[in-house]
Automatic annotation (TrEMBL), chains A, B:
NCBIfam families: fghA_ester_D. Pfam families: Esterase. The gene is fghA. This is S-formylglutathione hydrolase. Belongs to the esterase D family. PANTHER family: S-FORMYLGLUTATHIONE HYDROLASE.
Length: 277, 277
Protein backbone atom coordinates (compact mmCIF):
# COMPACT_ATOMS: atom_id res chain seq x y z
CA UNK A 1 0.00 0.00 0.00
CA UNK A 2 1.25 3.44 -0.90
CA UNK A 3 0.27 6.32 1.37
CA UNK A 4 -0.56 9.21 -0.96
CA UNK A 5 -1.40 11.62 1.87
CA UNK A 6 -2.66 11.77 5.43
CA UNK A 7 -4.09 14.77 7.24
CA UNK A 8 -5.58 15.16 10.70
CA UNK A 9 -9.25 16.09 10.59
CA UNK A 10 -11.87 16.28 13.31
CA UNK A 11 -9.58 14.33 15.63
CA UNK A 12 -9.13 11.47 13.15
CA UNK A 13 -7.05 10.92 10.04
CA UNK A 14 -8.19 11.48 6.46
CA UNK A 15 -5.89 9.43 4.27
CA UNK A 16 -5.53 8.77 0.57
CA UNK A 17 -3.93 5.48 -0.44
CA UNK A 18 -3.14 3.55 -3.59
CA UNK A 19 -2.45 -0.09 -4.33
CA UNK A 20 -1.99 -2.37 -7.27
CA UNK A 21 -5.33 -3.97 -8.06
CA UNK A 22 -5.16 -7.45 -9.56
CA UNK A 23 -8.88 -7.35 -10.25
CA UNK A 24 -8.75 -4.11 -12.26
CA UNK A 25 -5.22 -4.71 -13.58
CA UNK A 26 -4.10 -1.20 -12.67
CA UNK A 27 -3.22 0.95 -9.68
CA UNK A 28 -6.28 2.10 -7.75
CA UNK A 29 -6.59 5.04 -5.37
CA UNK A 30 -9.03 5.26 -2.47
CA UNK A 31 -9.66 7.45 0.58
CA UNK A 32 -10.18 6.25 4.15
CA UNK A 33 -11.22 8.32 7.14
CA UNK A 34 -10.32 6.78 10.48
CA UNK A 35 -11.95 8.50 13.47
CA UNK A 36 -10.19 8.91 16.83
CA UNK A 37 -12.04 5.99 18.46
CA UNK A 38 -9.85 3.62 16.42
CA UNK A 39 -7.23 3.79 19.16
CA UNK A 40 -9.60 1.68 21.30
CA UNK A 41 -10.18 -1.08 18.75
CA UNK A 42 -11.71 -1.93 15.37
CA UNK A 43 -14.64 0.16 14.17
CA UNK A 44 -17.60 -0.35 11.84
CA UNK A 45 -16.93 0.59 8.24
CA UNK A 46 -19.21 2.55 5.91
CA UNK A 47 -18.55 2.39 2.17
CA UNK A 48 -19.36 5.42 0.04
CA UNK A 49 -19.61 4.88 -3.72
CA UNK A 50 -19.33 7.99 -5.89
CA UNK A 51 -21.08 9.04 -9.07
CA UNK A 52 -20.17 9.56 -12.72
CA UNK A 53 -17.01 11.64 -13.34
CA UNK A 54 -15.93 11.40 -9.69
CA UNK A 55 -12.80 9.99 -8.11
CA UNK A 56 -12.30 9.20 -4.41
CA UNK A 57 -11.69 12.93 -3.91
CA UNK A 58 -15.09 14.49 -4.59
CA UNK A 59 -16.83 13.22 -1.48
CA UNK A 60 -13.64 13.55 0.53
CA UNK A 61 -13.50 17.25 -0.34
CA UNK A 62 -17.19 18.12 -0.42
CA UNK A 63 -19.13 15.41 1.42
CA UNK A 64 -18.76 16.86 4.94
CA UNK A 65 -18.78 13.42 6.59
CA UNK A 66 -15.83 13.73 8.95
CA UNK A 67 -17.33 15.77 11.79
CA UNK A 68 -20.13 13.32 12.47
CA UNK A 69 -18.12 10.19 11.55
CA UNK A 70 -15.73 11.28 14.30
CA UNK A 71 -18.57 11.57 16.77
CA UNK A 72 -20.14 8.27 15.76
CA UNK A 73 -16.91 6.31 15.42
CA UNK A 74 -17.32 5.28 11.78
CA UNK A 75 -14.54 4.42 9.35
CA UNK A 76 -15.52 5.83 5.93
CA UNK A 77 -14.02 4.27 2.80
CA UNK A 78 -14.35 6.13 -0.51
CA UNK A 79 -13.16 4.14 -3.55
CA UNK A 80 -12.59 5.44 -7.05
CA UNK A 81 -15.35 4.96 -9.63
CA UNK A 82 -13.39 3.06 -12.30
CA UNK A 83 -10.00 1.70 -13.25
CA UNK A 84 -7.63 4.34 -14.58
CA UNK A 85 -4.27 4.62 -16.24
CA UNK A 86 -2.48 4.72 -19.57
CA UNK A 87 -3.28 1.04 -20.23
CA UNK A 88 -6.98 1.28 -19.41
CA UNK A 89 -9.27 1.75 -22.44
CA UNK A 90 -11.18 4.99 -22.16
CA UNK A 91 -13.03 7.63 -24.14
CA UNK A 92 -11.74 10.99 -22.98
CA UNK A 93 -14.75 13.02 -24.08
CA UNK A 94 -17.45 10.64 -22.83
CA UNK A 95 -18.38 11.22 -19.19
CA UNK A 96 -20.90 8.38 -19.21
CA UNK A 97 -18.50 5.62 -20.19
CA UNK A 98 -14.95 4.52 -19.40
CA UNK A 99 -12.88 6.23 -16.76
CA UNK A 100 -15.10 7.74 -14.06
CA UNK A 101 -18.00 5.57 -15.23
CA UNK A 102 -17.33 2.04 -14.05
CA UNK A 103 -20.98 1.46 -13.00
CA UNK A 104 -19.89 -1.02 -10.31
CA UNK A 105 -20.18 -3.97 -12.69
CA UNK A 106 -17.82 -6.60 -14.08
CA UNK A 107 -17.49 -6.00 -17.81
CA UNK A 108 -17.61 -9.05 -20.06
CA UNK A 109 -16.89 -7.38 -23.39
CA UNK A 110 -13.51 -6.63 -24.95
CA UNK A 111 -11.51 -4.49 -24.53
CA UNK A 112 -13.16 -3.60 -21.21
CA UNK A 113 -13.31 -6.99 -19.47
CA UNK A 114 -9.69 -6.86 -18.36
CA UNK A 115 -9.96 -3.65 -16.30
CA UNK A 116 -13.59 -2.70 -15.76
CA UNK A 117 -14.36 -5.04 -12.89
CA UNK A 118 -15.57 -2.61 -10.26
CA UNK A 119 -18.15 -5.06 -8.83
CA UNK A 120 -15.46 -7.54 -7.85
CA UNK A 121 -13.13 -4.78 -6.80
CA UNK A 122 -15.65 -3.19 -4.43
CA UNK A 123 -17.04 -6.45 -3.04
CA UNK A 124 -13.88 -8.56 -2.83
CA UNK A 125 -10.45 -7.10 -3.44
CA UNK A 126 -10.78 -3.72 -1.73
CA UNK A 127 -12.59 -5.06 1.37
CA UNK A 128 -9.83 -7.63 1.88
CA UNK A 129 -7.24 -4.91 1.45
CA UNK A 130 -9.00 -2.53 3.84
CA UNK A 131 -9.48 -5.31 6.41
CA UNK A 132 -5.75 -6.06 6.31
CA UNK A 133 -4.59 -2.46 6.60
CA UNK A 134 -7.09 -0.48 8.69
CA UNK A 135 -8.71 -0.80 12.14
CA UNK A 136 -12.05 -2.08 10.87
CA UNK A 137 -14.58 -4.58 12.19
CA UNK A 138 -15.65 -6.29 8.97
CA UNK A 139 -18.64 -7.88 10.71
CA UNK A 140 -20.13 -4.37 10.82
CA UNK A 141 -20.28 -2.95 7.31
CA UNK A 142 -22.75 -0.61 5.62
CA UNK A 143 -22.85 0.94 2.17
CA UNK A 144 -24.17 4.10 0.54
CA UNK A 145 -23.52 6.22 -2.50
CA UNK A 146 -24.58 8.95 -4.89
CA UNK A 147 -26.14 8.69 -8.34
CA UNK A 148 -24.15 5.97 -10.15
CA UNK A 149 -22.76 5.19 -6.70
CA UNK A 150 -26.30 4.96 -5.34
CA UNK A 151 -26.93 2.38 -8.03
CA UNK A 152 -23.74 0.66 -6.89
CA UNK A 153 -24.81 0.66 -3.24
CA UNK A 154 -28.31 -0.64 -3.93
CA UNK A 155 -27.23 -3.41 -6.30
CA UNK A 156 -24.30 -4.52 -4.15
CA UNK A 157 -26.49 -4.62 -1.04
CA UNK A 158 -29.19 -6.61 -2.84
CA UNK A 159 -26.61 -9.16 -4.00
CA UNK A 160 -24.83 -9.33 -0.64
CA UNK A 161 -27.53 -8.82 1.99
CA UNK A 162 -25.60 -10.80 4.60
CA UNK A 163 -22.57 -8.56 4.26
CA UNK A 164 -24.09 -5.11 4.85
CA UNK A 165 -26.21 -4.12 7.83
CA UNK A 166 -27.65 -1.10 6.05
CA UNK A 167 -27.81 0.64 2.68
CA UNK A 168 -28.76 4.17 1.69
CA UNK A 169 -28.42 6.41 -1.33
CA UNK A 170 -28.44 10.01 -2.52
CA UNK A 171 -30.23 10.38 -5.86
CA UNK A 172 -29.50 6.83 -7.05
CA UNK A 173 -29.89 5.55 -10.60
CA UNK A 174 -32.50 2.95 -9.68
CA UNK A 175 -32.96 1.36 -13.09
CA UNK A 176 -29.82 1.97 -15.16
CA UNK A 177 -30.57 -0.67 -17.77
CA UNK A 178 -33.49 1.37 -19.12
CA UNK A 179 -32.18 4.92 -18.60
CA UNK A 180 -30.78 6.67 -21.65
CA UNK A 181 -27.70 7.96 -19.88
CA UNK A 182 -26.58 4.49 -18.75
CA UNK A 183 -27.88 2.06 -21.42
CA UNK A 184 -24.97 2.71 -23.83
CA UNK A 185 -22.43 1.90 -21.11
CA UNK A 186 -24.27 -1.28 -20.12
CA UNK A 187 -24.31 -2.44 -23.73
CA UNK A 188 -20.62 -1.84 -24.24
CA UNK A 189 -19.53 -3.33 -20.92
CA UNK A 190 -21.95 -6.29 -20.90
CA UNK A 191 -22.93 -6.94 -24.51
CA UNK A 192 -26.23 -6.71 -26.32
CA UNK A 193 -28.04 -9.46 -24.38
CA UNK A 194 -30.03 -7.32 -21.98
CA UNK A 195 -30.71 -10.30 -19.70
CA UNK A 196 -27.15 -9.98 -18.44
CA UNK A 197 -27.79 -6.35 -17.49
CA UNK A 198 -30.36 -7.34 -14.87
CA UNK A 199 -27.60 -8.42 -12.47
CA UNK A 200 -26.58 -4.76 -12.18
CA UNK A 201 -29.96 -3.07 -11.95
CA UNK A 202 -31.54 -2.47 -8.54
CA UNK A 203 -35.20 -2.60 -9.51
CA UNK A 204 -34.71 -5.58 -11.81
CA UNK A 205 -32.72 -7.43 -9.14
CA UNK A 206 -35.71 -6.93 -6.84
CA UNK A 207 -38.02 -8.14 -9.62
CA UNK A 208 -35.79 -11.20 -9.92
CA UNK A 209 -36.14 -11.98 -6.23
CA UNK A 210 -33.16 -10.30 -4.57
CA UNK A 211 -33.96 -8.72 -1.22
CA UNK A 212 -32.53 -6.29 1.29
CA UNK A 213 -34.45 -5.42 4.47
CA UNK A 214 -34.70 -1.65 4.03
CA UNK A 215 -33.40 1.25 1.98
CA UNK A 216 -33.07 4.94 2.85
CA UNK A 217 -33.03 7.30 -0.16
CA UNK A 218 -32.86 11.09 -0.47
CA UNK A 219 -33.68 12.72 -3.80
CA UNK A 220 -33.70 16.41 -4.67
CA UNK A 221 -36.71 17.72 -6.57
CA UNK A 222 -34.54 20.21 -8.53
CA UNK A 223 -32.19 17.47 -9.72
CA UNK A 224 -31.78 17.81 -13.48
CA UNK A 225 -31.44 14.04 -13.88
CA UNK A 226 -34.56 13.18 -11.90
CA UNK A 227 -37.08 12.54 -14.67
CA UNK A 228 -34.99 10.65 -17.20
CA UNK A 229 -32.04 9.22 -15.34
CA UNK A 230 -32.90 8.60 -11.70
CA UNK A 231 -36.66 7.93 -11.47
CA UNK A 232 -36.95 6.96 -7.79
CA UNK A 233 -40.61 6.04 -8.29
CA UNK A 234 -39.45 2.88 -10.03
CA UNK A 235 -37.64 1.83 -6.86
CA UNK A 236 -40.65 2.84 -4.82
CA UNK A 237 -42.90 0.61 -6.90
CA UNK A 238 -40.43 -2.28 -6.84
CA UNK A 239 -39.98 -2.08 -3.08
CA UNK A 240 -43.72 -1.88 -2.51
CA UNK A 241 -44.35 -5.02 -4.56
CA UNK A 242 -41.47 -6.86 -2.89
CA UNK A 243 -42.28 -5.77 0.65
CA UNK A 244 -38.97 -3.96 1.06
CA UNK A 245 -39.09 -1.10 3.55
CA UNK A 246 -38.13 2.03 1.59
CA UNK A 247 -37.80 5.49 3.13
CA UNK A 248 -37.77 7.85 0.15
CA UNK A 249 -37.52 11.54 0.94
CA UNK A 250 -38.10 14.02 -1.88
CA UNK A 251 -36.07 17.07 -0.84
CA UNK A 252 -37.64 20.27 -2.13
CA UNK A 253 -35.37 22.45 -4.25
CA UNK A 254 -32.19 20.39 -3.96
CA UNK A 255 -30.11 19.58 -7.03
CA UNK A 256 -27.73 16.72 -7.88
CA UNK A 257 -24.58 18.32 -6.42
CA UNK A 258 -22.59 17.89 -3.23
CA UNK A 259 -24.56 20.81 -1.80
CA UNK A 260 -27.45 18.34 -1.71
CA UNK A 261 -25.35 15.43 -0.45
CA UNK A 262 -23.59 17.38 2.31
CA UNK A 263 -26.92 18.77 3.53
CA UNK A 264 -28.25 15.29 4.25
CA UNK A 265 -24.96 13.53 5.03
CA UNK A 266 -25.60 13.74 8.79
CA UNK A 267 -28.96 11.99 8.44
CA UNK A 268 -27.39 9.13 6.48
CA UNK A 269 -24.48 8.70 8.89
CA UNK A 270 -26.84 8.58 11.86
CA UNK A 271 -29.08 6.09 10.09
CA UNK A 272 -26.17 3.77 9.36
CA UNK A 273 -24.63 4.21 12.82
CA UNK A 274 -27.91 3.18 14.37
CA UNK A 275 -27.82 -0.09 12.43
CA UNK A 276 -24.09 -0.76 12.82
CA UNK A 277 -24.36 -0.86 16.60
CA UNK B 1 -24.16 41.13 -11.42
CA UNK B 2 -23.85 37.83 -13.23
CA UNK B 3 -25.15 34.74 -11.46
CA UNK B 4 -22.60 32.02 -12.17
CA UNK B 5 -24.48 29.34 -10.20
CA UNK B 6 -26.86 28.86 -7.30
CA UNK B 7 -27.53 25.67 -5.40
CA UNK B 8 -29.69 24.92 -2.39
CA UNK B 9 -27.65 23.82 0.61
CA UNK B 10 -28.61 23.29 4.25
CA UNK B 11 -31.85 25.14 3.64
CA UNK B 12 -30.11 28.21 2.20
CA UNK B 13 -28.56 29.12 -1.12
CA UNK B 14 -24.88 28.80 -2.03
CA UNK B 15 -24.30 31.11 -4.96
CA UNK B 16 -21.37 32.11 -7.12
CA UNK B 17 -21.48 35.53 -8.75
CA UNK B 18 -19.30 37.75 -10.86
CA UNK B 19 -19.19 41.46 -11.54
CA UNK B 20 -17.00 44.00 -13.25
CA UNK B 21 -14.69 45.50 -10.69
CA UNK B 22 -13.66 49.09 -11.32
CA UNK B 23 -11.13 48.89 -8.51
CA UNK B 24 -9.34 45.82 -9.90
CA UNK B 25 -10.06 46.69 -13.53
CA UNK B 26 -11.25 43.17 -14.33
CA UNK B 27 -14.15 40.84 -13.71
CA UNK B 28 -14.16 39.40 -10.20
CA UNK B 29 -15.89 36.24 -8.96
CA UNK B 30 -17.11 35.67 -5.40
CA UNK B 31 -19.29 33.23 -3.46
CA UNK B 32 -22.13 34.10 -1.09
CA UNK B 33 -24.05 31.73 1.15
CA UNK B 34 -27.44 33.04 2.22
CA UNK B 35 -29.07 31.01 5.02
CA UNK B 36 -32.84 30.41 5.21
CA UNK B 37 -33.41 33.10 7.86
CA UNK B 38 -32.91 35.73 5.12
CA UNK B 39 -36.60 35.44 4.29
CA UNK B 40 -37.29 37.26 7.56
CA UNK B 41 -34.94 40.20 6.98
CA UNK B 42 -31.30 41.26 6.63
CA UNK B 43 -28.66 39.13 8.35
CA UNK B 44 -25.16 39.70 9.71
CA UNK B 45 -22.39 39.07 7.21
CA UNK B 46 -19.14 37.22 7.81
CA UNK B 47 -16.28 37.73 5.34
CA UNK B 48 -13.90 34.84 4.70
CA UNK B 49 -10.59 35.68 3.02
CA UNK B 50 -8.73 32.77 1.42
CA UNK B 51 -5.06 31.90 1.21
CA UNK B 52 -2.40 31.73 -1.49
CA UNK B 53 -3.40 29.85 -4.69
CA UNK B 54 -7.09 29.84 -3.71
CA UNK B 55 -10.12 31.26 -5.45
CA UNK B 56 -13.58 31.77 -3.93
CA UNK B 57 -14.14 28.04 -4.49
CA UNK B 58 -11.73 26.39 -2.06
CA UNK B 59 -13.54 27.32 1.13
CA UNK B 60 -16.91 26.97 -0.59
CA UNK B 61 -16.06 23.37 -1.46
CA UNK B 62 -14.05 22.33 1.58
CA UNK B 63 -14.74 24.80 4.40
CA UNK B 64 -17.86 23.08 5.77
CA UNK B 65 -19.41 26.36 6.92
CA UNK B 66 -22.95 25.99 5.59
CA UNK B 67 -24.52 23.66 8.16
CA UNK B 68 -23.76 25.92 11.10
CA UNK B 69 -24.16 29.21 9.17
CA UNK B 70 -27.69 28.00 8.45
CA UNK B 71 -28.32 27.37 12.12
CA UNK B 72 -26.81 30.68 13.22
CA UNK B 73 -28.28 32.81 10.43
CA UNK B 74 -25.01 34.12 9.00
CA UNK B 75 -24.40 35.28 5.43
CA UNK B 76 -20.91 34.13 4.40
CA UNK B 77 -19.08 36.01 1.64
CA UNK B 78 -15.99 34.41 0.07
CA UNK B 79 -14.11 36.68 -2.33
CA UNK B 80 -11.35 35.70 -4.72
CA UNK B 81 -7.73 36.27 -3.66
CA UNK B 82 -6.57 38.48 -6.54
CA UNK B 83 -7.57 40.07 -9.81
CA UNK B 84 -7.53 37.66 -12.74
CA UNK B 85 -7.83 37.68 -16.50
CA UNK B 86 -5.92 37.94 -19.73
CA UNK B 87 -5.13 41.62 -19.10
CA UNK B 88 -3.90 41.14 -15.53
CA UNK B 89 -0.09 40.83 -15.17
CA UNK B 90 0.80 37.47 -13.65
CA UNK B 91 3.58 34.92 -13.30
CA UNK B 92 2.09 31.53 -14.09
CA UNK B 93 4.68 29.46 -12.24
CA UNK B 94 4.90 31.62 -9.10
CA UNK B 95 2.27 30.68 -6.50
CA UNK B 96 3.47 33.41 -4.11
CA UNK B 97 2.94 36.35 -6.45
CA UNK B 98 0.39 37.54 -8.98
CA UNK B 99 -2.87 35.70 -9.53
CA UNK B 100 -3.95 33.88 -6.38
CA UNK B 101 -1.55 35.99 -4.32
CA UNK B 102 -3.07 39.47 -3.99
CA UNK B 103 -2.10 39.77 -0.29
CA UNK B 104 -5.09 42.07 0.35
CA UNK B 105 -3.05 45.19 -0.37
CA UNK B 106 -3.20 48.03 -2.89
CA UNK B 107 -0.14 47.76 -5.14
CA UNK B 108 1.69 50.97 -5.94
CA UNK B 109 4.25 49.61 -8.40
CA UNK B 110 3.86 49.15 -12.14
CA UNK B 111 2.57 47.09 -13.84
CA UNK B 112 0.61 45.84 -10.79
CA UNK B 113 -0.93 49.07 -9.49
CA UNK B 114 -3.75 49.01 -12.02
CA UNK B 115 -5.24 45.65 -10.98
CA UNK B 116 -3.78 44.48 -7.68
CA UNK B 117 -5.93 46.55 -5.36
CA UNK B 118 -7.43 43.87 -3.17
CA UNK B 119 -7.44 46.06 -0.04
CA UNK B 120 -9.79 48.60 -1.64
CA UNK B 121 -11.77 45.83 -3.32
CA UNK B 122 -12.41 43.95 -0.06
CA UNK B 123 -13.03 47.02 2.10
CA UNK B 124 -14.93 49.25 -0.31
CA UNK B 125 -16.11 47.98 -3.68
CA UNK B 126 -17.25 44.49 -2.79
CA UNK B 127 -19.02 45.49 0.47
CA UNK B 128 -21.00 48.11 -1.43
CA UNK B 129 -21.86 45.56 -4.09
CA UNK B 130 -22.87 42.93 -1.56
CA UNK B 131 -24.95 45.46 0.40
CA UNK B 132 -26.82 46.38 -2.78
CA UNK B 133 -27.52 42.83 -3.91
CA UNK B 134 -27.92 40.57 -0.86
CA UNK B 135 -30.06 40.53 2.33
CA UNK B 136 -27.30 41.75 4.63
CA UNK B 137 -27.21 44.03 7.66
CA UNK B 138 -23.98 45.93 7.06
CA UNK B 139 -24.01 47.24 10.64
CA UNK B 140 -23.18 43.67 11.69
CA UNK B 141 -20.01 42.53 9.91
CA UNK B 142 -17.18 40.24 10.95
CA UNK B 143 -14.11 38.97 9.15
CA UNK B 144 -11.90 35.89 9.17
CA UNK B 145 -9.55 34.06 6.88
CA UNK B 146 -6.83 31.48 6.33
CA UNK B 147 -3.08 31.96 5.93
CA UNK B 148 -2.69 34.90 3.50
CA UNK B 149 -6.40 35.46 4.16
CA UNK B 150 -5.74 35.41 7.90
CA UNK B 151 -3.23 38.18 7.25
CA UNK B 152 -5.94 39.94 5.27
CA UNK B 153 -8.51 39.59 8.05
CA UNK B 154 -6.16 40.80 10.81
CA UNK B 155 -4.82 43.79 8.88
CA UNK B 156 -8.23 44.86 7.58
CA UNK B 157 -9.76 44.59 11.05
CA UNK B 158 -6.92 46.59 12.59
CA UNK B 159 -7.37 49.34 10.00
CA UNK B 160 -11.18 49.34 10.23
CA UNK B 161 -12.01 48.49 13.84
CA UNK B 162 -15.31 50.34 13.72
CA UNK B 163 -16.47 48.26 10.74
CA UNK B 164 -16.06 44.70 12.07
CA UNK B 165 -17.45 43.39 15.32
CA UNK B 166 -15.04 40.46 15.40
CA UNK B 167 -12.00 39.00 13.67
CA UNK B 168 -10.51 35.51 13.68
CA UNK B 169 -8.00 33.54 11.65
CA UNK B 170 -6.80 30.07 10.77
CA UNK B 171 -3.00 29.90 10.56
CA UNK B 172 -2.55 33.56 9.60
CA UNK B 173 0.64 35.10 8.22
CA UNK B 174 1.08 37.48 11.13
CA UNK B 175 4.17 39.35 9.90
CA UNK B 176 4.33 39.04 6.11
CA UNK B 177 6.84 41.85 5.62
CA UNK B 178 9.60 39.79 7.25
CA UNK B 179 8.63 36.27 6.12
CA UNK B 180 10.61 34.85 3.21
CA UNK B 181 7.55 33.57 1.39
CA UNK B 182 5.85 36.98 1.29
CA UNK B 183 8.68 39.55 1.23
CA UNK B 184 9.26 39.24 -2.54
CA UNK B 185 5.59 39.94 -3.24
CA UNK B 186 5.55 42.94 -0.90
CA UNK B 187 8.61 44.39 -2.63
CA UNK B 188 7.18 43.99 -6.09
CA UNK B 189 3.69 45.27 -5.20
CA UNK B 190 4.79 48.11 -2.89
CA UNK B 191 8.35 48.99 -3.86
CA UNK B 192 11.63 48.77 -1.98
CA UNK B 193 10.78 51.25 0.78
CA UNK B 194 9.83 48.84 3.56
CA UNK B 195 8.12 51.59 5.54
CA UNK B 196 5.21 51.34 3.11
CA UNK B 197 4.89 47.62 3.85
CA UNK B 198 3.93 48.25 7.48
CA UNK B 199 0.41 49.27 6.45
CA UNK B 200 -0.18 45.64 5.42
CA UNK B 201 1.45 43.78 8.28
CA UNK B 202 -0.63 42.84 11.35
CA UNK B 203 2.09 42.86 13.97
CA UNK B 204 3.67 46.07 12.62
CA UNK B 205 0.27 47.78 12.45
CA UNK B 206 -0.13 46.95 16.14
CA UNK B 207 3.38 48.28 16.78
CA UNK B 208 2.34 51.47 14.99
CA UNK B 209 -0.66 51.92 17.23
CA UNK B 210 -3.55 50.25 15.39
CA UNK B 211 -5.92 48.36 17.68
CA UNK B 212 -8.70 45.79 17.56
CA UNK B 213 -10.38 44.57 20.76
CA UNK B 214 -9.70 40.84 20.43
CA UNK B 215 -8.49 38.17 18.03
CA UNK B 216 -9.23 34.45 17.90
CA UNK B 217 -6.58 32.36 16.12
CA UNK B 218 -6.23 28.62 15.52
CA UNK B 219 -2.87 27.25 14.37
CA UNK B 220 -1.94 23.62 13.65
CA UNK B 221 1.30 22.34 15.14
CA UNK B 222 1.98 20.12 12.08
CA UNK B 223 1.63 23.06 9.68
CA UNK B 224 4.66 23.05 7.36
CA UNK B 225 4.64 26.85 7.18
CA UNK B 226 4.52 27.41 10.93
CA UNK B 227 8.18 28.14 11.72
CA UNK B 228 9.17 30.31 8.77
CA UNK B 229 5.98 31.74 7.33
CA UNK B 230 3.28 32.01 9.98
CA UNK B 231 5.02 32.48 13.38
CA UNK B 232 1.96 33.15 15.58
CA UNK B 233 4.25 33.93 18.53
CA UNK B 234 4.98 37.28 16.89
CA UNK B 235 1.29 38.15 17.07
CA UNK B 236 1.17 36.83 20.62
CA UNK B 237 3.99 39.13 21.65
CA UNK B 238 2.52 42.10 19.79
CA UNK B 239 -0.92 41.63 21.33
CA UNK B 240 0.54 41.20 24.81
CA UNK B 241 2.47 44.46 24.55
CA UNK B 242 -0.52 46.29 23.10
CA UNK B 243 -3.08 44.87 25.51
CA UNK B 244 -5.07 43.19 22.74
CA UNK B 245 -7.00 40.14 23.90
CA UNK B 246 -5.68 37.23 21.82
CA UNK B 247 -6.98 33.67 22.03
CA UNK B 248 -4.35 31.56 20.30
CA UNK B 249 -5.00 27.84 20.17
CA UNK B 250 -2.16 25.58 19.04
CA UNK B 251 -3.96 22.56 17.58
CA UNK B 252 -1.89 19.41 18.01
CA UNK B 253 -1.16 17.50 14.81
CA UNK B 254 -3.14 19.68 12.40
CA UNK B 255 -1.63 20.83 9.10
CA UNK B 256 -2.27 23.85 6.86
CA UNK B 257 -5.07 22.29 4.80
CA UNK B 258 -8.85 22.54 4.77
CA UNK B 259 -8.92 19.44 6.95
CA UNK B 260 -7.63 21.75 9.67
CA UNK B 261 -9.92 24.64 8.77
CA UNK B 262 -13.09 22.57 8.52
CA UNK B 263 -12.35 20.91 11.87
CA UNK B 264 -12.44 24.24 13.67
CA UNK B 265 -14.89 26.10 11.41
CA UNK B 266 -17.76 25.55 13.86
CA UNK B 267 -15.80 27.18 16.69
CA UNK B 268 -15.08 30.24 14.58
CA UNK B 269 -18.65 30.61 13.36
CA UNK B 270 -19.98 30.37 16.92
CA UNK B 271 -17.43 32.90 18.11
CA UNK B 272 -18.42 35.41 15.43
CA UNK B 273 -22.14 34.76 15.85
CA UNK B 274 -21.82 35.51 19.56
CA UNK B 275 -20.37 38.92 18.73
CA UNK B 276 -22.65 39.72 15.80
CA UNK B 277 -25.76 39.56 17.98
Amino acid sequence: MKVVSTSKSHGGVQGVYSHTSDVCACDMTFAVFVPPQAKDGPLPVLWYLSGLTCTHANVMDKGEYRRLASELGLVIVCPDTSPRGADVPDEKDNWQFGCGAGFYLDATQEPYAKNYRMYSYITEELPAFVAANFPVDMSRQAIFGHSMGGHGALTIALKNPQRYRSCSAFAPIVQPSTANWSRPAFERYLGSDEKSWRAYDATLLIEDGKRFPEFFVDQGTADGFLQDGLRPWLLEEGCRKAGIDLTLRMQEGYDHSYNFISTFMDDHLKWHAGRLG
